[in-house]
Structure formats: C-alpha cells, structure tokens
C-alpha cells in the first residue's frame, strides 16, 4: 500500500489517484506517522445488477394450481 504525507498531498493528488486507479492499490495518507485516510479505487461492476437474472428461470407446469394434493394438508382444513 502506498503512503504519502499530508503536506505532499496537494501537489501530487491527481497523479496518485490516477496511479491508484491503474494499479488498483489503495493509497494511505499519513501525518506524523499516523494514518489519516485511505484512498482506494472503486471496483467497477462488469454488468448491472438489475436484470442480471433475466431469462435464467423456467416455469414448469401450471403456476396457479397448488403444488401438492390438498389431502396432505389436513391440518389446514
């Protein structure tokens, strides 16, 4: 993980963010040897979550009819 002091941050911020994006490695900002913040690149998803399961299901049989015989459900009658 890359580390940089708070004083060095303004002059090199854009280059460091570009480097973090290219390498995927987070950047730790330190002051007096104490970590203050971590800048890490966002992982871009390869596809949207909405609609990801489209066309993966299959309907077999009648979806309105009960799945089992009502005789087995004597408790509910």
Summarize this structure briefly.
The chain has 77 residues and is α+β, with helices and mostly antiparallel strands. The protein has one helix spanning 9-23; strands spanning 2-5, 27-31, 34-39. A 3-stranded mixed sheet has the order 1-2-3, covered by helices on one side.
What key phrases describe this protein's structure?
single chain, alpha+beta, YefM-like fold, 3-stranded mixed sheet, 1 helix
User: Could you please say which CATH topology of the domain at 1-42 applies here?
Assistant: YefM-like fold
> In the CATH hierarchy, what is the superfamily of the domain at 1-42?
YefM-like domain
Strand order of the largest sheet: 1-2-3
- Give the strand content: 15-25%
Mind explaining what this structure looks like?
With 77 residues, this protein is of the alpha+beta class. The chain has a domain at 1-42: 3-Layer(aba) Sandwich (YefM-like fold), CATH 3.40.1620.10. It is 19% helix and 19% strand. It has 1 helix and 3 strands. It has one helix spanning 9-23, and strands at residues 2-5, 27-31, 34-39. Strands 1-2-3 form a 3-stranded mixed β-sheet, covered by helices on one side. Strand 2 and strand 3 (34-39) form a beta hairpin. The longest helix has 15 residues, at 9-23. The chain is elongated and about 75 Å long. The mean pLDDT is 77.
């Amino acid at each position: 993980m890359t580390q940089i002091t708070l004083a060095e941050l303004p002059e090199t911020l854009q280059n460091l963010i570009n480097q973090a994006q290219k390498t995927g490695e987070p950047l730790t900002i330190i002051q007096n040897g104490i970590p203050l913040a971590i800048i890490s690149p966002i992982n871009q998803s390869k596809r949207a979550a909405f609609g990801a399961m489209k066309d993966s299901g299959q309907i077999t049989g009648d979806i309105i009819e009960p799945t089992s015989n009502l005789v087995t459900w004597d408790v509910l009658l």
